[in-house]
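quick one before i forget lol
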Amino acid sequence: EVQLQASGGGLVQAGGSLKLSCTASGITSDDYAIGWIRQAPGKEREGVSCSSSSDDSTYYADSVKGRFTISSDSAKKAVSLQMNSLKPEDTAVYYCAATADWDMHYDIEELCGEQFYDGMDYWGKGTQVTVSS
């Protein structure tokens, strides 16, 4: 059974930083994709950032480029998201999500940017990030 355990959400003032962490237990494949999907109140879910273990490719939503950095540890099947220069519009529930149906021929941008509903097989419980103005 695959389980995703996320941590690190909280309340921070605009301009501050937070770090989210997620560990995927039960994924046995060396090829997998993992990342963060967020949902703000009243909005659709949005792919924030994802990483491919196959070729270390990454994806960032335009709204977070230059502010967020995703890091992965393939040995631990873990991923973290360093979020800097946070804005009130970053307020959302952040979900760690992953798929083991993956190899280097797949496109991390397509998965994370568009296809996460169908493409991500495993979802963790969300962690709340609140950025006050």
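fyi The radius of gyration is 14 Å.
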